[in-house]
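Hi V.,

Quick status before I head out on leave. The structure for the redesign project is tokenized and pasted below; the design run finished overnight.
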């Protein structure tokens, strides 16, 4: 009799434990964001754009390129990774100015690409469902023209299902990278340049 009673008690505890586990799973299901995520940037899906001011006429100078690629990783809302940009894809809209910029100032034959290593970025939300985050601060190291410098900026991030779109913005001084201030048709470009980056990619598991 005692053996049967102990078996009944043990079975009851086991069923209670299983029920508790199932209840926890139903209430708190595993989230896609609980595992490390990967964001792969492919050429053609995004772009890099610069904005500068020319003196003495305060003319606006812009250039844009689309050869952006790299990999970002999200682990518990912390984002890291590296992105490369092929400088040969930059276009200012004026052929001669574009050629001078690439050959004389950026010297792309010697320094063909810029590399950005993201070292610090903390998200306020998981990259699941439909989310929107603005003014997300980030820091990293930009390697340009043979020189690496720390930079910081902000990003706007939007997710829809398993797609993420981001817009990042930061400023730099080209003199810090050993680049002579570009001059074209009597206009000299200011030292400080604003950089805009946009891309859209799919959210994938990093495992």
């Amino acid at each position: 009799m005692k053996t049967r009673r102990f078996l009944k008690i043990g079975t009851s505890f086991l069923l209670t434990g299983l029920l508790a586990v199932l209840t926890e799973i139903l209430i708190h299901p595993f989230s896609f964001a609980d595992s490390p995520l990967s964001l792969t940037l492919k050429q053609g899906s995004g772009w890099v754009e610069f904005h500068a001011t020319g003196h003495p006429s305060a003319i606006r100078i812009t250039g844009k390129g689309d050869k952006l690629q790299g990999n970002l990783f999200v682990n518990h809302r912390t984002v890291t990774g590296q992105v490369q940009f092929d400088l040969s894809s930059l276009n200012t809209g004026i052929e001669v100015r574009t050629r001078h910029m690439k050959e004389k100032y950026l010297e792309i034959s010697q320094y063909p690409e810029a590399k950005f290593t993201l070292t610090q970025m903390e998200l306020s939300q998981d990259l699941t469902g439909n989310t929107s985050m603005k003014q997300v601060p980030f820091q990293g190291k930009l390697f340009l023209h043979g020189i690496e410098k720390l930079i910081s900026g902000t990003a706007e991030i939007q997710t829809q299902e398993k797609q993420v779109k981001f817009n990042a913005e930061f400023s730099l001084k080209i003199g810090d990278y050993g680049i002579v201030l570009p001059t074209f048709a009597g206009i000299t470009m200011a030292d400080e340049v604003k950089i805009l980056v946009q891309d859209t990619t799919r959210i994938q598991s990093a495992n």
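Above is the designed sequence. The CA atoms of residues 37 and 205 lie 5 Å apart.

G. will cover questions while I'm gone.

Best,
W.
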